[in-house]
Amino acid sequence: MLTLLATLTTAEAADDVDLTLLSHRGENPVVDPTENLADYQTVVQELGVAVANKPMNPAETLGVNGFEVGIASTLAFNSNKGVDGSLSPWDRVNEDGDASNGLWIPWVMVRKGLPLSAEVGANLGWVGFSRQTIFGGYGRIAPLEGYKQAPDVAFQIGYAGYVGNDQIELGAMDWSGTLSYTLPFGTLLGINSASFAPYAGAGQVILHAQSKLDADLAQNLGITPVSGFKNTDAYDATDPQWRKARIHGGMRIVSRTFHMKLGATWTPQVMPEIHVGMGFTF
Fold this sequence. Notes:
Strand order of the largest sheet: 3-4-5-6-7-8-10-12-13-14
Strand content: over 45%
């Protein structure tokens, strides 16, 4: 699988983000760099949300001896169509001027249970048809779980980064709360070998990005650092668009050690995403 991933990322560069292309709109040079601001911000927002860790698990944790490994796929519905036939923001940073219809991101995911209803996880993703990858990690804790009379409750905090693009540095911090309830079922009365767990929750994604281009070139393109982190120079309290609320929900079905997951996230004013996954829990 790693060999296939390396082959694809080398051979397919159609959806690499190329900021230098903002110097032109189609065949026409951009004279006023402020014209680029809205398109640049759209790409950064949507790419940042797509990069962020995905809340694809019910609130129930794995337990101190638990370990999970799986694969998943995300489809993010970005702004891939321009208005009245014009180039979309993504088309403008695409070498061919024709970006893919949405962002497709396959993942490899692992998580490990810890004492005191805690766990940690890590994700490795590939931004489909590009040479960029995503690395993310998170920690979760469930202050309430395992009670028949109440849903499980978990809180997560994590960070993910966009890796492999020599023009832009981008990352996303995420935090969220999740409610879920696990319903066991089985083929024999009193013997449950499977379970169904619906879940829902909400949280926030905090984005930051800055250009790796030469400072003069970045200025000529109208590209500036942006950040939702209050302790950075790029943070602007009057510009809240880099701290985005996010809603999530989905379900997990487990049969013995095998599981399947289906979920969705919605970041208002940015984009929706859908996720599917499968794997094994030991």
